[in-house]
UniProtKB/TrEMBL annotation:
<dbReference type="InterPro" id="IPR011032">
    <property type="entry name" value="GroES-like_sf"/>
</dbReference>
<dbReference type="Pfam" id="PF01488">
    <property type="entry name" value="Shikimate_DH"/>
</dbReference>
<feature type="domain" description="Quinate/shikimate 5-dehydrogenase/glutamyl-tRNA reductase">
    <location>
        <begin position="154"/>
        <end position="230"/>
    </location>
</feature>
<dbReference type="InterPro" id="IPR036291">
    <property type="entry name" value="NAD(P)-bd_dom_sf"/>
</dbReference>
<keyword id="KW-0560">Oxidoreductase</keyword>
<protein>
    <recommendedName>
        <fullName>Quinate/shikimate 5-dehydrogenase/glutamyl-tRNA reductase domain-containing protein</fullName>
    </recommendedName>
</protein>
<dbReference type="GO" id="GO:0016491">
    <property type="term" value="F:oxidoreductase activity"/>
</dbReference>
<dbReference type="InterPro" id="IPR006151">
    <property type="entry name" value="Shikm_DH/Glu-tRNA_Rdtase"/>
</dbReference>
Length: 330
């Protein structure tokens, strides 16, 4: 089967090109893609050649990890289902994670149309739902996972490091749980998209020490950008039995002194990936309206202009938040 995909052909090189897609099997679903959501942080890391897969950093001597089909999330309408598929039918609007592709460094990716994927990685959208609102569901789940992991009592203070999408959704989840939420960011435009009940601070404009002095004792820290230095600076303001959630990619620099955590009996959480129960809860959060996705979309491009989308991201990352590729269904 032939299809189209966004391919990282080499370091910092992006092309929209024809690809070979394996034929579907009896447990598979074939989806005509409508929207695919770029995960700026993770995909940028792959585009720079920093990862070989998942959370595994590229090291000298590893195979060069190109070409690779970018991304891992999209929505669309079901074209066909395998004979063993029961919970999805032709014509359903669905979300799908990474689907199959041939001839790449890894055999799957997100920005691929049509999507051929095992039905276990397909979620039916609520009736009448906006397909674009759910097209970043895996990434939204990462934020939900960060915000739901730590034990938290209503009114306790939680600090989120990073004003990107994961930071935004982690902050929304913590707010939904009753926390007093503080977000540390570096971009005015991103911080302006925070819920008005979340306290956003620009660390380019205000010293971190001054921000921490204005906060109550901190029970939760969620690092979405991989800044060990910022976590270390915040640590003295963290309470006994507090929680540190580490979600940013740390490459080879993520060295943690467990004995230091033991001084205050801190808990370290290391969320990664996605599982069905969390995806189900994230989908429900979007449907209920407390996990907001569409207001975070800053840019939309036709899929065939993916290279232009990436030029925009790389040249002005601070102005980009949610970047969606729109695909023609028919």
């Amino acid at each position: 089967m032939k299809g189209k995909a966004v391919i990282f052909t080499n370091k910092l090189q992006v092309e929209w090109m024809e690809v070979d897609i394996p034929d579907p099997g009896e447990t598979d679903v074939v989806i005509d893609v409508k929207h695919s959501w770029i995960s700026i942080g993770t995909e940028s890391s792959y585009l720079r050649g920093e990862r070989i897969k998942g959370e595994v950093p590229y090291r000298e001597g590893d195979p060069w990890p190109f070409p690779i089909a970018a991304g891992y999330q999209k929505t669309g309408i079901v074209r066909a289902v395998g004979s063993a598929v029961r919970h999805i039918k032709e014509g359903d609007w669905v979300f799908a994670s990474a689907s199959r592709v041939s001839g790449m460094f890894t055999p799957s990716g997100g920005h691929i149309n049509p999507a051929v994927i095992d039905s276990s990685q397909v979620w039916k959208l609520p009736e009448g739902a906006s397909a674009v609102a759910y097209s970043g569901l895996v990434l939204t789940q990462v934020g939900y996972n960060c915000g739901s992991r730590p034990a938290l009592a209503e009114g306790q203070t939680a600090v989120v490091i990073g004003d990107g999408l994961v930071g935004q959704w982690a902050a929304q989840t913590l707010l939904h749980r009753g926390a007093n939420v503080v977000v540390l960011g570096r971009h005015r435009t991103r911080l302006s998209r925070l819920d008005p009940h979340i306290h956003g601070f620009n660390t380019h404009e205000q010293a971190l020490s001054d921000i921490l002095d204005s906060c109550d004792p901190i029970s939760v820290v969620v690092d979405t950008v991989g800044s060990m230095a910022t976590v270390k600076a915040i640590e003295p303001a963290m309470t006994r039995d507090s929680h540190w959630v580490s979600a940013g990619f740390l490459g080879t620099t993520g060295i943690v002194d467990i004995q230091k955590l033991r001084d205050k009996e801190m808990t370290l959480h290391t969320p990664s990936g996605w599982i069905k129960p969390r995806m189900d809860q994230t989908l429900l959060g979007i449907h209920e309206g407390w996990l907001l996705t569409e207001p975070l979309i800053s840019h939309r491009f036709p899929a065939e202009q993916a290279a232009e989308a990436w030029r925009t991201i790389l040249e002005d990352k601070g102005q980009c938040l949610g970047v969606v590729l729109d695909w023609c269904l028919f």
